[in-house]
Amino acid sequence: METREKIYQWQPVVGQEEIDEVVAAVESSWITEAHRTRHLEELLASWLNVEHVVLTNNGTVAIALALIALGIGHGDEVIIPDMTFVGTGNAVKLAGAKPVVVDVRPQDVTIDPREVERAISKRTKAIIPVHLNGRSAEMRTLKSISKQFLLPIVEDAAQALGSRRQGRMLGTESVVGCFSLATTKIITTGQGGFIATNDSDFKKRLTELKDQGRLHRSWNHHPAPGFNFKFTDLQAAIGIAQFKKLPDRLQRMKAIYSRYRERLEALPAVTFLDFDFESGLSPWFVDIYVHERDELAAFLDNMGVQTRPFYPPLHTQYDFHAADACPQSIRFSRTGLWLPSSVSLTDEQIDYVCEAIEVFYDHQSGEKIRSKEKETQDEPAG
Q1: Does domain 16-243 have CATH number 3.40.640.10?
Q2: Neighbouring C-beta atoms of residue 22, cutoff 10 Å
Q3: Residue 49 DSSP class
Q4: Which residues of the chain are modeled with pLDDT < 70?
Q5: What are residue 321's DSSP bridge partners?
Q6: Which candidate, 118, 117, 162, 149, places its Cα nearest to that of 284?
Q7: CATH 3.90.1150.10 holds for 246-368
Q8: What is the enclosing helix (H) or strand (E) of 127?
Q9: Rounded Cα distance, 228 and 214, in Å
Q10: Which residues make up the CATH 3.90.1150.10 domain(s) of the chain?
């Protein structure tokens, strides 16, 4: 098969609508956090069916602010999954607490509630389940643990905007949910993140924390400690235009995932994890699991197809420590591969990627047959 123009694993899609919104923001002279930021917060809150959304710099800061607002800091521990982007753990450190890493479930790569319960200590102050790749963590069991041990849950829904479980948006089943608007997300503001909550007092504390300890920009009085983690109306302008495209993009992501799965599930070497579209779940990226992950990725790269390997387990990164062994996380890290998943991806491009994967495994099969034949030929005569 012939190589084509490079197919990227992910590519942000920005059009004339975003340009028009940004130009309007610049011409208004309101470019720091102001009216457009408030409007985007209202749009997101309505979409998620929550009372409040607070926009901030990025998803990592969103988690850190949520933890600080809960009173979590030095000397405290927060339980997080071993398989997640490092930003989850770094947010705990930014808040001054210690991340305690536990293993994930084999069926969906989300935090294992049994491991969470085993890792709880006198210093544990919160649990952060990550809705990895748009799949829901086992919230029913986690909420039971939360209630039993009086531990707040901070949902990391950075990869799950628009993904639902039984009619409820992921990131809205606890006191606070944190989201990302980075360029790798289904809608983007370049950089950005936000916090969703139904608690008005909690929202006030978040507002103080992100804006130098005050509730209103006009105040010269700062009654509480805070920082400068504000958003900008330039980012909000992009976000407003992107938000209008969210429903169509969610539908397209489901179609992309389904097309890949229909083309590849007949290959014994390629494994997919289930996605319950009927309950409302929506994928962030298309993930497959293969034993020849690195070899396949290199082959696809030579064919003009960019992929992305799964994260290394957090416990292998600097200054992260696991509460116990994490065999599932290690397995997913070694076999997980994200295929091209941009919302702009065409069916023709998907078919090309699938064909390239089929060619790779045809070559693998041929090499195994030739190797077996050579072993037979080399055997001494009986």
Answers
A1: yes
A2: 21
A3: T
A4: 1-3, 366-382
A5: 100
A6: 162
A7: yes
A8: strand 124-127
A9: 11
A10: 246-368
